[in-house]
Each structure stands twice: as structure tokens, then as C-alpha cells.
């Protein structure tokens, strides 16, 4: 049986928290459309995320991210997998909260490191691919995740299916 969800669902969390995998499972279970903000940005800009950072810098990327988020919420209801830094702008948090529920995927710095250490497309970690830096950035962002979230799900040592199921129980 498909689960019933009557709002948009935003998955937030640090890079490597599992937002992409969990959102796919959730969309399947809830029979909802899935939108990934990074993919949406890449399509709109005709460039990969690292290329956008290289050419135009983080501030430009953040502005596009906000513009895209607004477009996404103006369309049909969906599960939205958000880029890890989306919570850093209060405007984005307001947009998400007005449109639906915000689920924070909580993950330890060690788990994040194991998941992203070989990644070539995480410009925010370029030149800093180590646990210490991940922990520092995560600590800086934690108050923003806390402010944005409606609920929090731990993803360490858990299957994608179990995480998606727990989110559905909350909704
Ligand atoms: C970012 C996370 C990335 C992407 C961009 C910036 C961040 O998304 O939006 O590289 O600031 O944490 P993922 O969380 O999907 O890796």
C-alpha cells in the first residue's frame, strides 16, 4: 500500500547524509514526484555544480539555489532532496517551512567522511577532505539545521528503507 502524504517534504542534512538515496525511497513509498535541488540547478544553468562554483563562486550558487527552491515550491507537491547548505539562508528556511515539512538527516562526521571521501563533486570540501574539517563545518551548520528541522532522523548504521519508513511514520 502507498503511504499518504499531503505536503511537500524537504530532506535536509550535510553532504553524504543520504538525502539522495532516502528521497528516492521515500518518493517510491509515498508515490510522489522527486526533485533534487542540485539536479534542478544543473539543468537550469547547463553546468555541473563544481563548474558553477569554479566559474562564479559560492555566492552566485547560493542565489541560484534560492531562485530554484522558489520555483520548485511553486509547482506540484514533491519530495525535495536539498543541497547540504540550503539552510544557511533564512529565506530558504522560510520558503520550505511555508510549503511543507522539513526532515533533517543527522549523520556523524566519521560516517560523512566515509561516504564522501572519494567524491569529486563536493566543492565545499575541495582541499579539505578530512574528518576534522567536516566536523568543523557540521558544527557551524548545526544551529541552522536545528532551526530549520521539523524532525530529525539518525542515518548512521541504518538502511535507506528503515530511514524512509521512519520518516513516513512522522508524516
Ligand atoms: C553543498 C552541498 C551540495 C551542493 C553544493 C553545496 C553544501 O549538495 O548543493 O556542492 O554547501 O553543503 P549535497 O548535500 O547533495 O552534496
From TrEMBL:
Known cofactor(s): Mg(2+)
Keyword set includes Nucleotide-binding: yes
SUPFAM superfamilies: P-loop containing nucleoside triphosphate hydrolases
The enzyme's E.C. designation: 2.7.1.71
Family the UniProt entry places it in: Belongs to the shikimate kinase family.
Name by which UniProt lists this protein: Shikimate kinase
Database matches in PANTHER family: SHIKIMATE KINASE (PTHR21087), SHIKIMATE KINASE 1, CHLOROPLASTIC (PTHR21087:SF16)
Organismal lineage: Bacteria, Bacillati, Bacillota, Clostridia, Eubacteriales
PROSITE patterns associated with the record: SHIKIMATE_KINASE (PS01128)
Residues holding Mg(2+): 20
Keyword Nucleotide-binding: yes
GO MF annotation terms: ATP binding; magnesium ion binding; shikimate kinase activity
Amino acid at each position: 500500500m502507498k503511504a499518504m502524504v499531503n505536503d511537500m517534504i524537504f530532506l535536509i542534512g550535510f553532504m553524504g547524509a543520504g538525502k539522495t538515496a532516502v528521497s528516492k525511497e521515500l518518493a517510491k513509498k509515498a508515490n510522489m514526484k522527486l526533485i533534487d535541488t542540485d539536479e534542478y540547478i544543473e539543468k537550469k544553468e547547463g553546468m555541473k555544480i563544481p563548474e558553477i562554483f569554479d566559474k562564479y563562486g559560492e555566492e552566485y550558487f547560493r542565489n541560484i539555489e534560492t531562485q530554484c527552491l522558489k520555483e520548485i515550491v511553486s509547482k506540484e507537491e514533491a519530495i525535495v532532496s536539498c543541497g547540504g547548505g540550503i539552510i544557511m539562508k533564512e529565506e530558504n528556511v522560510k520558503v520550505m517551512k511555508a510549503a511543507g515539512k522539513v526532515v533533517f538527516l543527522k549523520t556523524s562526521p566519521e560516517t560523512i567522511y566515509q561516504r564522501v571521501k572519494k567524491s569529486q563533486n563536493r566543492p565545499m570540501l575541495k582541499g579539505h577532505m578530512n574528518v576534522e574539517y567536516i566536523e568543523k563545518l557540521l558544527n557551524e551548520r548545526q544551529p541552522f539545521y536545528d532551526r530549520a528541522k521539523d524532525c530529525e532522523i539518525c542515518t548512521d548504521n541504518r538502511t535507506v528503507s528503515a530511514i524512509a519508513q521512519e520518516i513516513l511514520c512522522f508524516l
